[in-house]
Amino acid sequence: MKNIGDKADPFLAVKKKARYRLVGVCLFSFLLFFLGSFFFSMPPKHLPSEFVVETPEENRSSRELAAQYQRLNKKLGKQLVDEDVITLKKLKNPIWYVEAGVFGNRNKANLLNERLILEGYSTNLKKRKVGDRNIFILLLGPYDLVTAEEIMNKLISKGLKADLNRF
């Protein structure tokens, strides 16, 4: 580095520091490369094997299920058994019907039935005995909840008294 006839290099100390830093950075990079490849090749053991992500719709359906369970307990006046709870949990897509009208006269029920058939709805006309009288219930469906609500809103906008039912 120093020859006898040469002048002293004023940046010699800075150059030595720079070389040491360069060697240190290279060694550190190699160390990170080997440790990183070893670390990332191992399977993660600190994470659970299954993640359960609950979507808002699933959360809503679980709340609805709990509400149905409480309503059934009140109606029955007793606790439901485990088989009933399992059956309720299996109900993911309950069947909904739109009640388009309740009539005491079959002719009026038939008129509305024909009108809704012409509009493209699938209708069911049910006859029920209430006391000593017959009533006629006009149902549309079966539908899922979202479709049933849309149809109910359409019928209400047309001036009909519509309601949702599950059977």
Give the proportion of residues in helices: 40-55%
Would you give the CATH topology of the domain at 96-166?
A: Alpha-Beta Plaits
Number of DSSP helical runs: 5
Radius of gyration: 38 Å
How big a fraction of the residues is strand? 15-25%
What is the CATH superfamily classification of the domain at 96-166?
A: Sporulation related repeat
What is the subunit organization of this protein?
Answer: single chain
CATH architecture assignment of the domain at 96-166: 2-Layer Sandwich
Unreliable stretches covering 5 or more consecutive residues: none
Q: Give helix and strand order, one letter per element, not per position.
A: HHHEHEEHE
Distance between the termini: 97 Å
The major β-sheet equals: 4 strands, antiparallel
Summary, kept brief:
The protein is of the alpha+beta class and 167 residues long. The protein contains five helices and four strands, in the order H-H-H-E-H-E-E-H-E.
Question: How is the secondary structure organized here?
Answer:
Layout: H1 12-41, H2 56-76, H3 82-90, E1 96-103, H4 106-118, E2 123-130, E3 133-143, H5 145-157, E4 163-166
